[in-house]
Amino acid sequence: MKFPKDFLFGAASASYQVEGAWNEDGKGLSNWDVFSKIPGKTFENTNGDVAIDHYHRYKEDIKLMAEMGLESYRFSVSWARIIPDGDGEINEKGIEFYNNVIDECLKYGIVPFVTLYHWDLPQNLEADGGWVNKRTIRAFAKYAEVCFEAFGDRVKHWITFNETVVFCTLGYLNGAHPPGLVNDQKKYFQATHNVFVAHAEAVQIYKNLRQFGEIGITHVFNPAFSIDGKEENIFASMHANHYQTFWYYDPILKGEYPSYVVDALKEKGLTPDWTEAELTLLKDAADYNDFIGLNYYQPARVAKINETIESTKIDRDKATGKPGNPSFDGVYRTVMMEDKVYTKWGWEISSEGFLDGLRMLKERYGDVKLYITENGLGDEDPIIDGEIVDVPRIKYIEEHLTVIKSAISEGINLKGYYAWSVIDLLSWLNGYKKQYGFIYVDHKNNLERKKKLSFHWYKHIIETRGEEL
Ligand code: 8VR
């Protein structure tokens, strides 16, 4: 079987992780420009000032993508390039840059898939309370509209937010992402709600413009499974799925929050400040949301605990996705299991977890349209005789694409696959050590680009539409 004709084979990146040019051509400061410069926040104090200099090398990079046969490129727009202070004047140079990127993609027939928010918030808004302040909702709606009007004639696929669970958890509970707060549960839930409202506003604006494209959101997809058949651990997995998945997916797809979480928040005095009008907006926008993007790397294996959590602060090395942390409410813990396989960064490799998770989604949300907007292997790639032989990455992607194929044959509505990442880039907290790309970037040699083994492999998969998988 070949993948269906309308299935898109792509790869992804994010503005802060590739662009650099942090203060060029009128760009404003983002929260990451500031946060990454606080000593100790990132591995070896790396930051995105230069990143892989995609801002100046986008032509070369997109040419390589075309050579690889990429059908679609998922990238994000840096809000502070478009509106430097978040909600004031528009920076024409910023618009021009993304126009160039989009046109360069279209020149080769590559479909641009655009994320509006991949974590880099204008610092001016962050300083005023960021996602906790409702001003940011209005600002986002305006920014989204500016992007739709500037790029919407050529961009027909929009993602509002990337992984709300990650930037809110790390930002308001764990202190590992901006704004660096610890254990602020009230703000955490408020920020998530404000993001969902901002998403809903953007969906409405987009549909009112009648540009006839599609709009959705991307969430981390981290389905939780009990470590065994014990009742208490099965309860833990149900609890984890409600807080980590349904809290994030329900308001987008069903237009309402899961009552299991709502009731608990009420009891604890953690209910966000939400208005009737906002709740109605969520309900209305859910009917117009076109798809959900899933970033799948690993499932969660969970066990019940009963702990009083003094502080949810976690150190950088524990904030990078490795299991072992207790949940903020002390109800469960994620665990590493002896019979599972893990990457060098401790992320479980499990294509079965992927398939089981997709079935769980289908059960809860029916036939919603899905894209895999990220999936890939973070590794330190071996270089042998000058060649980058990233065989484990090929194996990883092969396994996951094979699962997608069977999911499609089971009737799961999957429309595209975006490997993370198209090119080696800056990891938020891990510097350049953790590589994900099909294209290698030589940091010792003027950021020169080089094709990896996986580049040729993926090209072949695309050419044959996955027939051999
Ligand atoms: C996703 C993010 C993306 C990347 C990939 C890989 C990190 C990284 C944490 O959660 O959308 O930006 O972020 O995962 O892992 O290493 O930079």
Protein model, in words:
The mean pLDDT is 97. Strand 14 (439-442) and strand 15 form a beta hairpin. This protein has 15 helices and 15 strands. The chain is globular, with a radius of gyration of 21 Å. It has an 8-stranded parallel β-barrel with strand order 1-2-3-4-5-7-10-13, surrounded by 5 helices. The protein has a 3-stranded mixed beta sheet with strand order 6-8-9, covered by helices on one side. The protein has one domain: Glycosidases (TIM Barrel). Helix 3 (54-68) packs parallel to helix 5. With 469 residues, the protein is an alpha/beta fold. Helix content is 40%, strand content 16%. The chain starts with 7 loop residues before the first strand and ends in a 6-residue tail after the last helix. It has helices at 15-18, 31-35, 54-68, 79-82, 92-107, 123-126, 135-151, 164-173, 185-209, 231-253, 259-268, 276-286, 351-365, 391-409, 453-463; strands spanning 8-12, 72-76, 111-117, 157-162, 214-221, 224-226, 291-296, 300-304, 332-334, 369-374, 383-384, 387-388, 414-420, 439-442, 448-451. Ligand 8VR binds next to loops. Residues 14, 162-163, 166, 295, 374, 378, 420, 427-428, 430, 434 line the site of ligand 8VR.
